[in-house]
Amino acid sequence: MPVRPLSRLSRSDLADLNAFRAVERLKSFTKAAVELGITTSALSHAIRNLETRLGVRLLNRTSRTVAATEAGASLAMRLNVGFREIGEALDEINRLRDRPVGRLRLNILSDSARLIMARHLPKFLNQFPDVEVEISVDDRMVDIVSEGFDAGIRFGGTVPEDLVAINLGEELKWVAVASPHYLYRRPIPITPEDLRSHACIQLRTGQGTIYKWEFRKGEEERVIDVPGKVCVSETELAIELALASAGIAYCLEDRVATYLKSGSLRVILPEWSPVEPAMQLYYPGHRRIPQGLPELINLLREEIEAETVLKNSPV
C-alpha cells in the first residue's frame, strides 16, 4: 500500500493522531481506549492505519509494554504542542460565550464521590448544561497530569505541593462504628488496644497496604494494626458489613451520619476519634484552567459551606 503523506489532514487523520498521543502518553492501549471512549481493538486498528499511512513505526508493542519509537517520540512531542495550541484557541473562543462549554475529567476518592459529587454535581449540571463531566473514582494516588485529568479530589495533606489545592469544607472526623447487635455479643472496647480482640473490617488502601486505624485523645495517639477475617478495598462495603453485624468498621463520620442518627450503628471509642484535614480539590497551576472548572469549584465551595452551616446550626 503506498504511503499517503498527511499534508492535508482529514478528520480521520486528526482523530488517529490524537489517539496516538493518548497511547504514547499513557503507555497503554487499554487506558487510552478508556480515555477516548472506544474499544481497544478499534484503537489498535487506528494506530496501525496511521503507521501504514506514514510509512513508519510509531510504537513498539509487547504483551506487557507499549513504548514510542524514536520517530514516535518525536512526533508525539510536536503533536502535543500543536494540539495544545488548538485547545487554547478553542478555549479563547469559548470564553466569549455567556457560559462555559467543554468536558471536565476528574479523578476522585470514593469518599468524595459519595460525600461531595453525589450531593452537589446535579446542581452543577443543571446550571451549566454545556459542560460534560467524566469522573474516575479511584482511591489510588494517580498523576492527574500524565493520565489526562483536569483535576482531582484527595484528602488534605496528600496532594503534591506543586499543584494548586483548594479546601472543600471542614476538617474530617474518623470513627470506628459497629451495630448494636455486634456490641451486644462482644465487650465494648474501652481503649484502642481492645480492638485487637474484636472482629475488625480491615481496609486496603489505594496504595495497596492494609490501613492501620488511627486514634487520638488530646495529646495521646494510637495506631492499631487491627485483626480481621475480612479485608475490603472500599468504604461502602465496610459500612454494609458493619450494618450486618460482621464487625467493626473505620470510616469518616459523615459517611455513616444517617446510620448513627437512626441507631443502626454506634460510634466506638468516641473520645478517641481523630480529626484530620479537609478534602481538597487540586489541579495543575502551570497550564490553562479548563472551561467549567472554576465554576465547579465555586459551586462546590458554596454548597458545602451552606451544608456545613446547616449541620452546625442549633435545631
TrEMBL record:
<keyword id="KW-0804">Transcription</keyword>
<dbReference type="Pfam" id="PF00126">
    <property type="entry name" value="HTH_1"/>
</dbReference>
<dbReference type="InterPro" id="IPR036388">
    <property type="entry name" value="WH-like_DNA-bd_sf"/>
</dbReference>
<feature type="domain" description="HTH lysR-type">
    <location>
        <begin position="13"/>
        <end position="69"/>
    </location>
</feature>
<dbReference type="InterPro" id="IPR036390">
    <property type="entry name" value="WH_DNA-bd_sf"/>
</dbReference>
<comment type="similarity">
    <text>Belongs to the LysR transcriptional regulatory family.</text>
</comment>
<dbReference type="InterPro" id="IPR005119">
    <property type="entry name" value="LysR_subst-bd"/>
</dbReference>
<keyword id="KW-0238">DNA-binding</keyword>
<dbReference type="InterPro" id="IPR000847">
    <property type="entry name" value="LysR_HTH_N"/>
</dbReference>
<dbReference type="InterPro" id="IPR058163">
    <property type="entry name" value="LysR-type_TF_proteobact-type"/>
</dbReference>
<protein>
    <submittedName>
        <fullName>Transcriptional regulator, LysR family</fullName>
    </submittedName>
</protein>
<keyword id="KW-0805">Transcription regulation</keyword>
<dbReference type="Pfam" id="PF03466">
    <property type="entry name" value="LysR_substrate"/>
</dbReference>
